[in-house]
Amino acid sequence: MHAYRSHTCGELTSDNVGEVIKLSGWVHRKRDHGGLVFIDLRDHYGITQCVIDSSDDGFSDVEALRNESVITVSGTVKSRTEETINTNLPTGHIEVAIAEMTVQSAADTLPLQVNSDEDSGEDTRLRYRYLDLRRARPHANIMLRAQIIQSIRQRMVAQGFTEFQTPILTASSPEGARDFLVPARQHPGKFYALPQAPQQFKQLIMVSGFDRYFQIAACFRDEDSRADRSPGEFYQLDLEMSFVEQKDVFAAVEPVVKGVFEEFSDKVVDPDFVHIPYADSMLKYGNDKPDLRIPFEISDVTDIFAGSGFSIFAKNIEKGAVVRAVPGPNCGSRSVADRMNSWAQGEGAPGMGYIIYGEGEARGPVAKAIGPEKAEEIKTRLGLKDGDAAFFACASANEAASLAGRARVKIGQDQNLIDNNLFKFCWIVDFPMFELDEQTGKIEFSHNPFSMPQGGMEALQTQDPLTINAWQYDLVCNGIELSSGAIRNHLPEVMYKAFEIAGYGPEVVDNKFPGMINAFKFGAPPHGGIAPGIDRMVMLIADEPNIREVILFPMNGKAEDLMMGAPSEADDAQLKELHIKRSLPVKPAGA
Fold this sequence. Notes:
The protein is α+β, with helices and mostly antiparallel strands and about 600 residues long. Helices cover about 30% and strands about 25% of the residues. Helix 5 (about 200-205) runs parallel beside helix 17 (about 515-520) and helix 14 (about 455-460) packs parallel to helix 15. The mean pLDDT is about 95.
């Protein structure tokens, strides 16, 4: 018989009764019933109940075991009595009578409980992540992640994509976040950068004559943590395709994403990936990552308030403000309206105006100021009924959209209008190529500078830059952005012109992106791609509120690895070898 096991702890059934077997695993739980000690023995595959009688030689050794000690037991498989069958376990009809027991590794007193769902706090969980990962839910999340990645690979290969690995040590590139820099020992004063994404490399793969590339790519960005973003590093399904239009990228990605969500989730997956222009998304949903499960939209009512008796709004409109109206289904009470107003103030806004509809009339200060006709027009435009309310945000277009968008989500949550058993996807398309920096008044790239402008060179030469859209798109699910992508700008002259509009001369393009711009001068195919986030997909499918729950060894919110002690200080010898001197910030007096 094998030194450690003849079976796993999830394998034995009634068919094995009478067999002499061997199991190895962790002591999940121990129950002392006086003359009997029961051990729930756990390994990666499941749990098997083992039992020993006080008359057996090894009884005292088993009785002394601590939870999470690693042991090997040999014994005979027996049927459980009818009243002790555990139908929740695949092995619940049998138990193993322990004949021999060997302690492979004794456990100290545990800093967290493995056999419990009790949350020991983030710091403790991350410091002892190897213990935390023994717990059922974290363990299942990581297995789910592995299975999802395997499924994605199979689906991509089936579509004719080939997996390549791009470099990890590369040059710094301005892609919207801070780089992680790595000192180059052989080149004093110079640094490599860890890739924020394989953006340039995957485009160069297309220039190299390959056609359909993908990889499960590690990306590194020195940015702050949040619930749907892990600090430091993340993984994405990175892909690129040659000789494609936007619709071809969508056709390649949709079956993969939809198939994975259907395969690994019991929720309903809406098969319709709707297309929403960026401008419409900002107007109707207040952001570019709408949750389409919320069954109402924001409306522009600036025209109704312009010149109206509600002077606060009317005067702001004369100064360029807009008014966005958010429907409030079942919100037609003063208490709900007051809570929304207080919530808006907590969000940094002056408040939210409102109209309450009930018993055939419109109530509230706003309704009184604008009169019954305008109030009824708002009711009709928003599709409201008695018992509902309308809430208003009046500010600049961006500020009003942001507040109205957050209010829409809050109302959807507060009124239980969101179907939590549903995944709804959408493509946000027609992103603006450029935007105006309100502080400096300068034109800047609004998103990815490598995107092809719609209309190409002609648009760049003849249109107001702020009216040019890009072949840029985002994939969104339930209010979470899964990925960004674009049809790329593969023409050097168009790239130079686009950067010129954003205030960068050709020398900037040549210096910042030498590999890519030079490659484009030797014949580049039209190409495009996208990169759905693996971590976010797994988070949604696992129904976890925080992305750290689906990452094997995550950092905490301060970008610290409490388990390994990173980041850590380098000693003087290491710094000298790398030609680096410390220049730490001076702490304020008394700090």
